[in-house]
Amino acid sequence: MPVEHIAADRIPAIALAGPTASGKTAAALAIADALAPRQPVEIISVDSALVYRGMDIGTAKPTPAEQACVPHHLIDIRDPLQAYSAAEFVHDATRLIGEIRARGALPLLVGGTMLYFKALLDGIDDMPPADASVRARLEQQAAAIGWGGMHAELARVDPVTAARLAPGDSQRIQRALEVWHVSGRPLSSFHTAKTTSTNDRLLSTANLFSLEPHNRAWLHGRIAQRFHAMLEAGFLDELRRLRERGDLHANLPSMRCVGYRQAWESLDGLYPMSSLPERGIAATRQLAKRQITWLRSMPGRHVIACDATGATTQLVQAVLDRVLGSVLKGGT
What we know:
Elements: E1 14-17, H1 24-35, E2 41-46, H2 64-69, E3 72-73, H3 86-102, E4 106-111, H4 114-122, E5 124-125, H5 132-157, H6 159-163, H7 170-183, E6 194-195, H8 199-202, E7 208-212, H9 216-232, H10 235-243, H11 260-267, H12 276-296, E8 302-305, H13 311-323, H14 325-328
Parallel strand pairs: 1-4, 1-7, 2-3, 2-4, 7-8
Antiparallel strand pairs: 5-6
């Protein structure tokens, strides 16, 4: 059946997840290439770091050539000074899925920010939006009493949230206190009722494919290789240019991204520059561990061993067979 004869609401949204360095970008392009003769594809990035402009090397952002092969969305949509939340992602992804389907194309959601995937699959807590004035007051208070003192204040108004946050987790402590001041309710109270609206129709775990290694050592080797390649490609120069702006600081969500945080600390002289590769690789390995833990909490996903021979071919075939069969065969 020609693409133009397929009803937009019958075109599935496909998700491709996996830990960092598992090969998602190459796999996504392979899927798009395999479908191209009969079904155009547009990629929606599911990555909290790729949203930032000027952060290309340290985020392993798809190259301009890769982005030219297939339309990409939610890349370079924020300045590093700005925040981008899971709620904003759900709003943007929901809109994009509808627009892509309306064009007769297939939405392919690709990335490793598991919170975003969970939010799109399960719904998002209906929390109040950020309030710049409240946040500014909290930052002034933190400057006076420290984040340990702010954590103690959070323990007073929202002990449930405080119990799961480290005293040094300034970003999350600030957000929890902000929610309390704006709404008069503890952050933990919003976790009991989620708004799912139409999310369950947009994406399901039946259409979620996951690249996961059988052998962690394989992934660790890829992480180390990629971090060294980033350094050789000018990662530190990229961060120096961002620092030279004068308006960015280490506690921004953008600068807390894995790799950027460790490099910022080295440029500040907190750690020897010689230790950066070791610290950056270790932090990235911890990120991959957390991502795999998130993935294992998503039953129903289709797991492809990314370290197996022919993993990309297996993934492409699985997508064709398990998800797209009805569309490509005319919906019989």
